[in-house]
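Example record for the data management plan.
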Amino acid sequence: MKWARLLKAAADVEAVSGVRALTALADGIGEGLPRTSLLALRSDLGFNEAAAAVLEAIAVDGLPAETAAASLHGMVAGCAQRDQEQQVSLVWSGPSSHRVPVRSTRRALLGLITEARQELTLMTYSARRYEPLVTALQEAVARGVRVDVVVETLQGAGSALSEIEPASAFTDVIGARIWNWPSGNRKEPGAKTHAKLALADQRTLLTTSANFTQAGVDRNIEAGILIKGGPAPIRAAEHVRELQRTGVLERLW
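Corresponding structural encoding:
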């Protein structure tokens, strides 16, 4: 099938860098941008290789640039429709109710990490080493997922946290990037890094009252929402990236 090569390559661009990257590539092809410019449209890991495969498919199959761009824009529209389809479910930690079955925080969190293929972001206030979480993150890094973890620090928490830095819960996740909100960047006294969330591939978002500790995800009564699809995971990922880009969040390691 003449279009199969192009559609497969385009799907790889969307999987690696998202719908916006595919849109930019389609626009650039339609505008007749040179190859070097097209390959430099995004700095995402893997975009250059995926975009090169799209250009190769166009060249090998002899597709006119305008026609190829139109096909890519059609694929973008399909992806946008898919992303608008949203599933929302409640998740709980703590004792279960036999009459009202609910999804557990533990299963939701570990399932989200297991499903991640490109990028994964966790944000938590308190953290203690929790073996199932560490193992899931190590496996994510091993399969090429970019892992970012944002944590509070003892200094930032003041007297609310003590003894062990929350970041120490993730020291064995080699390859993960650990971030914090430095106290010097906080305009209001007493401001805390209090969000607890997990994001996978701009597609799945878990926001919860549970810290990422065994007590938080297993023992305490905690409540949260798991969102699959729609704009919320995308907007959350973009917000975290902007905080990183502007230096509000800084790398611990």
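Summary line stored alongside the record: Residues 113 and 136 are 6 Å apart (CA to CA).
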